[in-house]
Design goal:
Helices cover 20% and strands 31% of the residues. The protein has two helices and three strands; from the N terminus they run H-E-E-E-H. It has helices at 2-7, 40-43, and strands at 16-20, 27-31, 34-38. It has a single domain (2-43), classed as Ferrous iron transport protein A (FeoA) (SH3 type barrels, Roll), CATH 2.30.30.90. The longest helix has 6 residues, at 2-7.
Length: 49
C-alpha cells in the first residue's frame, strides 16, 4: 500500500489536510490542491510527524 500512497502524491514532507473522516465513508484529504478519497485502512498507514 505504501507504493499506492506514493503514486497518489502522498510523499514524505508533503502537507496534507484531512477534510472528512466519517465512519462509513472514505477519508477525504487535500493534497497539493487535489482532493483524494482513500479508505480508512490506507489512511491509517499515513504517519504524521
Amino acid at each position: 500500500m505504501q507504493s499506492r500512497l506514493l503514486s497518489l502524491g502522498l510523499l514524505p514532507g508533503i502537507e496534507v489536510e484531512v477534510q472528512s473522516t466519517a465512519a462509513h465513508d472514505p477519508v477525504l484529504l487535500l493534497v497539493q490542491q487535489a482532493r483524494l478519497a482513500i479508505g480508512h485502512t490506507m489512511a491509517a498507514m499515513i504517519v504524521v510527524g
